[in-house]
């Protein structure tokens, strides 16, 4: 029997597998995806949010524990467990040497990547390179890996893990780490969680999934049925407005459209519905998926003129281009009269001061509802561009309740051999909202803790058996 079974094949699972192996346990990792699609959402990532008290290689200035904590507190509105959050924050300051040892390389942030050069360390080659490095290191250390291995059930004895099942096959282990992601790729479950709106629509039917198709929440369901303690709201997720032409799965980072704060956003009735200039784009990009999800038909249209071109990261698909505003309305299939009324009143309401996208500048609207409070400039310089946007789900926040040892809890009591990491428990730290790079901070911290805890549990059991 293997010592530690790790279920999942992304960042959290790999961190757990490597730590368990380093602690002397034999490890088997089960990845649902085939080898070429291994790595879950982690293959799409670019960076990790890191606390640091002074400049460090790729990180500028300082980003203290307190500032990181305040950022987390703000975005979650208090829906976070302070003890676990601080544990993640502290771990983020010291994990990079360990990551380097396993082949991960870092680079400074690129210009235009959400101004993260102080707070976030970027992975050279992105998440794909990180995942590949971890698999290589795992293989070199003797971790066994199986692909196309979707666990569909867990056998429990009260709060103790006994075995995992893949169809008729039964795999026993002394301890187990669950790191199988959220349920973002389970469209039926998303439909159920979002329900039907007042217009009779099922909003989730129009969602796109930014990452892997393999995170279907099978084990979240199984653990709920087994009586594990659950945390979070199933309708909460990280949800970004992405290009409506993106594929249903795995569109990744390049389908994000980052010019919202530089233009206006309309719904399909050509009406504005939120302040596009409320705050810096890095602090606001993750609210727009939900805002679009609440609009009729779950679609939004970002409209810019030629002035902002070059000031935002170009998305993978070019915008629809037109030489006049009526032509743009026609090309986008929006009602032309309403479109012109909205754009005319927006343009007339703009009070342009000193435009500066790097500060909360004084360009704003007057007498308009909703207002645009910064970076408001008339949309009047052709060519014009429009992007149709849909809600793009990154990951869901419903998860298993855990503690500082990453144990799964049953009726408030920790399991002594079942642990959890990554998206499956991120809701303990991130009840709602998001701050860029914290997904990887949580997965890395708890992946490493879960691996260590599982190895300790397994090796203790082995010692008992031998005695
Ligand atoms: C486009 C995109 C960009 C992102 N960028 C960033 C970023 O720059 N920084 C950041 O911090 N976060 C980012 N995130 C979020 C980040 O991906 C996650 O927080 C993190 O990768 C989660 O890691 P994980 O190991 O928990 O899940 P995943 O990496 O998704 O891994 C889950 C694994 O479980 C496997 N699995 C699922 N079900 C089963 C089963 N039943 N049996 C066996 N295996 C199963 C899957 O195949 C997959 O390998 C991004 C996400 C996306 C989609």
Radius of gyration: 23 Å
How many helices? The count is 11
Number of strands: 21
Distinct small molecules bound, one entry per kind: flavin-adenine dinucleotide
* Biggest beta sheet summary: 8 strands, mixed
Helix amount: 25-40%
Oligomer: single chain
Which descriptors apply to this entry?
single chain; alpha+beta; eight-stranded mixed beta sheet; binds flavin-adenine dinucleotide
Overview of this protein structure:
The chain is an alpha+beta fold. It contains eleven helices and 21 strands. Strands 1, 2, 6, 7, 8, 9, 20 and 21 form an eight-stranded mixed sheet that branches. Strand 20 and strand 21 form a beta hairpin. It is elongated, with a radius of gyration of 23 Å. The two termini are 18 Å apart. 52% of the residues are buried. Bound molecules: flavin-adenine dinucleotide. The site of flavin-adenine dinucleotide has 44 residues, from helix 1, strand 3, helix 6, strand 18 and helix 11.
What secondary-structure arrangement, pairings included, does this model have?
Blueprint: E1 2-7, H1 11-22, E2 27-30, E3 47-49, H2 65-76, H3 82-101, E4 106-107, E5 120-123, H4 126-141, E6 144-146, E7 153-157, E8 160-166, E9 169-178, H5 187-194, E10 208-209, H6 218-225, E11 230-231, E12 237-243, E13 264-266, H7 281-284, H8 288-293, E14 300-304, E15 320-322, H9 325-332, H10 336-349, E16 350-351, E17 364-365, E18 384-396, E19 399-400, E20 407-410, E21 413-420, H11 438-466
Parallel strand pairs: 1-2, 1-9, 2-6, 9-21, 10-18
Antiparallel strand pairs: 3-5, 4-5, 7-8, 8-9, 11-19, 12-18, 13-14, 14-18, 15-18, 16-17, 20-21
Helix pairs in contact: 1-4, 1-11, 2-3, 3-11, 9-10
């Amino acid at each position: 029997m293997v010592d530690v079974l790790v279920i999942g094949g992304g960042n959290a699972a790999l961190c757990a597998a490597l730590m368990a192996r380093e602690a002397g346990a034999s490890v088997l990792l089960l990845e649902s995806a085939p080898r070429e699609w291994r790595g879950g959402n982690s293959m799409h990532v670019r960076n990790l949010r890191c606390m640091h008290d002074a400049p460090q290689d790729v990180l500028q200035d300082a980003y203290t524990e307190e500032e990181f904590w305040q950022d987390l507190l703000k975005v979650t509105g208090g829906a976070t467990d302070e003890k676990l959050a601080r544990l993640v924050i502290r771990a983020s300051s010291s994990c990079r040497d360990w990551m380097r040892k396993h082949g991960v390389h870092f680079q400074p942030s690129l210009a235009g990547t959400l101004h993260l050069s102080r707070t976030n360390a970027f992975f050279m080659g992105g998440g794909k390179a990180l995942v590949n490095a971890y698999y290589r290191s795992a293989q070199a250390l003797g971790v066994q890996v199986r692909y196309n291995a979707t666990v569909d059930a867990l056998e429990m004895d009260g709060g103790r893990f006994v075995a995992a099942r893949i169809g008729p096959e039964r795999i026993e282990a002394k301890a187990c780490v669950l790191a199988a992601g959220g349920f973002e790729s389970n469209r039926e479950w998303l439909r159920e969680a979002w329900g039907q709106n007042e217009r009779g629509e099922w909003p989730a039917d129009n969602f796109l999934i930014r990452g892997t198709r393999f995170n279907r929440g099978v084990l979240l369901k199984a653990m709920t049925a087994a009586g594990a303690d659950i945390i979070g709201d199933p309708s909460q997720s990280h949800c970004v407005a992405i290009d409506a032409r993106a594929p249903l799965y795995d569109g990744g980072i390049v389908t994000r459209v980052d010019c919202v704060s530089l233009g206006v956003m309309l719904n399909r009735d050509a009406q504005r519905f939120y302040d596009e200039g409320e705050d810096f784009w890095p602090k606001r990009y993750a609210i727009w998926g939900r805002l679009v999800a609440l609009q009729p038909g779950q679609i939004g249209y970002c409209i810019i003129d030629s002035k902002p071109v070059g000031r935002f990261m170009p998305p993978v698909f070019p915008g629809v281009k037109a030489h006049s505003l009526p032509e743009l309305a026609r090309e986008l299939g929006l009602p032309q009269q309403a479109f012109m009324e909205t754009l005319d009143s927006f343009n007339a309401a703009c009070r342009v001061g000193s435009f500066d996208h790097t500060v909360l500048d004084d360009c704003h609207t007057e007498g308009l509802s909703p207002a645009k409070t910064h970076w408001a400039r008339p949309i009047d310089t052709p060519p014009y561009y429009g992007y149709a946007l849909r809600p793009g789900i990154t990951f869901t926040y419903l998860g298993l309740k855990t503690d500082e040892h990453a144990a799964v809890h049953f009726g408030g009591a920790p399991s002594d051999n079942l642990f959890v990491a990554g998206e499956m428990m991120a809701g303990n730290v991130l009840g709602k909202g998001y701050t860029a790079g914290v997904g990887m901070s949580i997965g890395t911290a708890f992946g490493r803790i879960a691996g260590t805890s599982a190895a300790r549990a397994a090796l203790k059991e082995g010692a008992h058996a031998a005695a």
